[in-house]
């Protein structure tokens, strides 16, 4: 992403030499841990929230190692660089424990993950759902089929050169609807296609031979990760088909155990996904704001706990099939 200019100082991402994955940020875009309200509160009190120090993988709401320096060194670096705060996004459990011991603030969010319960076909998955949820999924899939939309999967490296301009147009359209520039450019996506091989998969939808929608996914170990999608027209239920049902079918067909559809989106619960807790850790330099944010995060964690505890009431499954660990 850096070599193709998607992550650069011009775009508000200043890569620091102290460690890979460490950035001085001038905004909060591309993180998927939303702290815009914190920045607004700072501004209302005449203080600067930016720059801030962030340890993350840009544009990737997936847990992984983030503690590139010890907590005290991250705090010192943030102070030296004139940052309001330091943030480690989507940490792994041992890092959460270490940063908690250093009195960093814990923030939780809900992501939605589908789990393979030994299904041999999509019909097996549907059989595990309540009749109402199963019927709804069948209806949504039928509407896509009745619209005569043809769907195929292709490894990124196998995409025809003639499809790339249209694919990128579809990807960028999702951002355009929100008034944003796309995070990734075409050279970056093409480089991923060359480097990731079979691990980067595209699900394509065509109507009358025209490419009308796409979603792309990464495969890592036993997990499928759903990342981005775009469509040229509002075909009924096509988003659910490409982003969820096709991913579930792919996971079953390829023996994958998990399908991570990303953070947020409570509508995923009705389509067989389970909530899981993602954790990010935060150090706030200003004592007054640190106390206020700590109180706010405590209330937010209570809300997340209530959401996860209610899974049996709102789950798509006939029977509870797993427990949620906070």
Briefly summarize what is shown.
This protein is an alpha+beta fold and 326 residues long. It has helices at residues 36-44, 71-80, 93-101, 122-127, 131-146, 164-176, 186-196, 238-253, 287-309, 311-314; strands at residues 13-15, 22-25, 52-55, 85-88, 105-115, 149-155, 200-207, 210-220, 223-231, 258-263, 274-284.
Task: Give the helices and strands, then pairings.
Elements: E1 13-15, E2 22-25, H1 36-44, E3 52-55, H2 71-80, E4 85-88, H3 93-101, E5 105-115, H4 122-127, H5 131-146, E6 149-155, H6 164-176, H7 186-196, E7 200-207, E8 210-220, E9 223-231, H8 238-253, E10 258-263, E11 274-284, H9 287-309, H10 311-314
Parallel strand pairs: 3-4, 9-10
Antiparallel strand pairs: 1-2, 2-3, 4-11, 5-10, 5-11, 6-7, 7-8, 8-9
Helix pairs in contact: 5-8
List keywords for this structure.
10 helices, alpha+beta, eleven-stranded mixed β-sheet, 2 domains, Aminopeptidase, 326 residues, 11 strands, 24% strand
